[in-house]
Amino acid sequence: MQEWKEAFEVPNTLGWIEIFILAGLLYFVFRLFQGTRGASILSGLIVLFGILSAVTSLSHLDVLNWILSKLMLYITLAIMVIFQPEIRRVLARLGRQPWRNNGMASQKSLVEPILQTVKLLSKRKIGALIAIEREIGTRAIQDTGTRMNSAVSSELLATIFFPHTPLHDGGVIISGDRICAAGCLFPLSQKEELSKMLGTRHRAAIGITEETDAIVIVVSEETGAVSIAYNGRLRRGLNAEKLHRVLSSMLRRERTGLARFREKIQTGEAMLSDTVLMTLNEEQDEE
Q1: Cα–Cα distance between 130 and 114 in angstroms, integer?
Q2: What is the pLDDT of residues 134-158, one digit of tens each?
Q3: Domain DAC spans what residues (predicted)?
Q4: Beta bridge partners of 146
């Protein structure tokens, strides 16, 4: 009994500080994983392992305590494998560095062409999926589609999504003020609480915003309804006025130097590719 009393002895000031720091870290981790399919599993594992560790330590079950300590490494590795999508999303969010702002021009010029496109597609009930890249890069997702380097215009966007065209089935990604890829396959959200009424297009919109900070506009093929997804959340049933207001507010925010540096690299790659193609065409003409 004396040993149990000593185990639950009131900590000193330093002990309380350590408890508050640990509690804050656990709360931060749970907030980051909140709403994901791994949240309930992760919390259950932590609670179960904590109870077992406390019981084995206080009861002097040395063998079981030794086994649990050895299993800790394998449990950690298993968590990293099982929750790979969630961990990737968390690390991507931590790497956004929103405090580094060097005054790069906003993307507010995109509002009008996107709005005109959405109005047309919504009226004709043509499905669309348009992602606007922000701080976190989408290179891996761009590679699933067809690379482009085109100015954003309502005519081009509408043409891409028009039925039976080669690129209409996937999503479009806009980086800076250029369309950089079309026909892309966006990752599907695995959230369990999502409505079963949501189709693949809406789940893809939520999925890419879970892994990146992109802004995604969705037009339903069945109803023509317009939705916008950001930070893993979907806002549905937007009319033209609401969409204009939301997009203007979100795209007015300044972007960091990281985004500008990435855009310069992508522009340089596109220019180099165009130069190589022109050279090859000239050589073929000479032959």
Answers
A1: 9
A2: 888 888 899 999 999 999 999 999 9
A3: 84-240
A4: 182
